Amino acid sequence: MPIVKYPRATEPLWHEWDRKAQKCGLRHTVYAVNGDQYTGEWLDNLKHGKGTQVWKCTGAIYSGDWKFGKRDGYGSYSIPDPVTKEYKRVYIGWWKNDQKCGYGATFYPGGERYEGEWSGGLRSGWGRTYYRDGSIYEGQWLEDQPDGQGMLRLPNENRYEGGWKEGKKHGPGKFFYLDKGQLFEGIWAADIPKCGILMDFGRDEAPAPTQYPIPKV
To answer: For the domain that residue 162 is a member of, what is the CATH number?
Structure first.
């Protein structure tokens, strides 16, 4: 009995090429048209999982967690020094939807740094900033500025404790002049003390006390 052979349908080559082009799971370095490169895990053609991205235009590097094409999870971001070309860490901490969110630390030029909470890429929540001049602020932040309750300690150990609004002293607060052994307690508005009481505070231990003590009322 004769056997009839039917020709096997051949699959177009572009089907195979398309399957190979789909990015899912761990892949070698993939280069974008603009020169950016990514090495790591993918899901449905999106960066997803652990991976490292290098931006060609700035030389910046992000290494950490990704979620559906965006930085999301824990990771570090570094940029090259313009002079030495060595990489300097700019931020290490948590991300959400491609922005700093959660707890993290940022290192600014000149040695300043912030450690604390972030929201939408801005300092928001509780955090501590070490300034270039040696001052330290610790307290509440809102949209990248001290806002709420916080303490600012100056290099000479004098400090302010109290309310803040939009980066300025605002509301009830205390300023400890430890170098002179005095304490000012009062109300502040936009960094200016409006009313309050000045009294001696640790005058005997102060390095440069005033000539005469303040009489008690």
So the answer is: 3.90.930.1
